[in-house]
Amino acid sequence: MTNYYAATAAPFADLPPLRGDLHADVCVIGAGFTGLGAALELAERGVSVVVLEAGRVGSQASGLNGGQVHTGQRRDQAWLEKTVGPDDAMALWRLAQDARTHLHATIADHAIACDLKSGMIHARHRPGGEAEDAGHIEHMARVYGYDALSLIGPRDLADDLGTDAYHGGLLDRDGGHLHPLNLALGLARAAIAGGAIVHEHSRALSWTRQGGKITVVTDQGRVTCDQLILTGDGSLNHMAGRARSRVMPINNFILTTEPLGDLAREIIASDAAVADSRFVVNYFRKTADGRLLFGGGENYRPGFPGDIAGFVRRHMLKVYPRLADVKIDHAWGGTLGITMHRVPFVGEIAPGVRVASGYSGQGVMLAPYVGKLLADAALGEGAGVELLSRLPTPPFPGGRLLRWPLTVAGLSWYAMRDRL
């Protein structure tokens, strides 16, 4: 089956692969949200920048995800306060709010048509938890001045979502959803218009430093630069140094139904995005053309299920059994990066070489702004990257040979708890 985003993307011409040698102030590897955010910032500040993309713009996690715009960091503020202290927790909250402002401003300033809509519902899949949600809402209002959260009772939530599968939750009015591939393509157009050079089908094979310059090699050319930015989330390779032991790729899967017609008015009447409280999250929303887009299930090994539509449909029908006779029009999978603590790995891995990865599902809102911060750091303004680099991202246990089976065993145990 086809990918819904690719089937509904705005036209975007193929960009030629790199052939020969180029020189630039900064080379960016990866044309996803982070890389394009960096390229746009650099281009707008008059810096020469070349972006190398192994596939096509937005062809990996940035253009394949659920399109959900979550506020804050991937871990909540209470966890951050305990882990990095109240001062850094506050700074990280402000950074995340700046990322949200930056996302909305970038979409508006560059007229990126990506179906941006407001509203994010966090739904509890088990009874209980209302007091915890209420405490979170109070804490966010009192400590951080954030008043966009409100409780939703079980009956009101059932009326809105069109299912009684959940036991209440909370609404984040500043969250939302969008068409992620159109966002990526819009960022690329804006960066190119500003003077950035983007080469598709140009896989970076290695980088070396000699005489103060960095040389990036592809199979058909080279880029010589002063600063290098490595992105790629779950697709990091050997060039990312210590980041690679701290970021694990996992696969996640999505489907879209046929247009629901009149039924669309009864499913997510508020038109918010929804994510539930499972460890392996079910997340869903309506598309601009009235389909249900539903993400559910993941695996931790190379390769996707043979029948992705059937794999995800089982999860969808547990939430919406009334859709049993609805046709599935699109189904696809994508690879994202996670870290041990579900916070991004961002930092300088060698002089002039910086990396960002492991957004753990929070990349739609964070990644374009982290790209801007990486661009700032390349120009000597590194406060944002330095703050993010203090987030704890230890290596996965087991070393090169055992980290995969040990991590899979742990993730599978948590996934099993969802079914109990």
Helix percentage range: 25-40%
Task: Give the mean pLDDT.
Answer: 93
Structure class = alpha/beta
Span between N and C termini? 32 Å
- Biggest pleated sheet: 9 strands, mixed
Oligomeric status of the shown chains? single chain
- Overall shape: globular
Written account of the structure:
The chain is α/β, with parallel strands linked by helices. It has 12 helices and 17 strands. Helix 4 (77-84) crosses helix 5 and helix 5 (86-109) packs across helix 10. The longest helix has 24 residues, at 86-109. The two termini are 32 Å apart.
Brief overview:
With 420 residues, this protein is of the alpha/beta class.
Note the topology.
Elements: H1 4-7, E1 20-29, H2 33-44, E2 49-52, H3 61-64, E3 68-69, H4 77-84, H5 86-109, E4 117-123, H6 130-144, E5 149-152, H7 154-161, E6 169-177, H8 180-193, E7 197-199, E8 206-210, E9 213-217, E10 221-230, E11 248-257, E12 273-276, E13 283-286, E14 292-299, H9 308-319, E15 328-338, E16 345-350, E17 353-357, H10 363-378, H11 383-389, H12 399-418
Parallel strand pairs: 1-2, 1-10, 2-7, 4-12, 10-17
Antiparallel strand pairs: 3-6, 4-6, 5-6, 8-9, 9-10, 11-14, 11-15, 12-13, 13-14, 16-17
Helix pairs in contact: 2-8, 2-10, 4-5, 5-10
Keywords:
420 residues, alpha/beta, 8-stranded mixed β-sheet, 12 helices, 17 strands, globular
